Amino acid sequence: MADTPxxxxxxxxxxRSASPGTRKIDGRLGxxxxxxxxxxxxGQFGYGVFVYDLERVWCCAEAELEPTGEVxxxxxxxxxxxxxxxxxxxxx
Length: 92
Description:
By secondary structure, the chain is of the alpha+beta class. It has one domain: SH3 type barrels (Roll), CATH 2.30.30. About 20% of the residues lie in helices and about 35% in strands. The chain contains 1 helix and 5 strands, in the order βββββα. The chain has one helix spanning about 75-90, and strands spanning about 10-15, 30-35, 45-50, 55-60, 65-70. The protein has a 5-stranded antiparallel β-sheet. A hairpin with a 4-residue loop joins strand 3 (about 45-50) and strand 4 (about 55-60). The radius of gyration is 14 Å and the shape is globular. The termini are far apart. The model has no long low-confidence stretch (mean pLDDT about 95).
């Protein structure tokens, strides 16, 4: 069982799945928008993947994701802007 997720936030991934829940998004490209706090029962982490062409987040198991080796830089910038807005909101 892994202590840390194998795929980091904002990593671009291709969904590779034949399971009934995610078969509809097999082969689609997206980025990791969320990760479970702890591994699931299977010992791997769960991921929220923003699928680009559907503009929706899908829940996927780690085994269903194939990292492309790229990072979604726009998602990184958006996360940083959100972090700054929240910090400013709670600073005063």
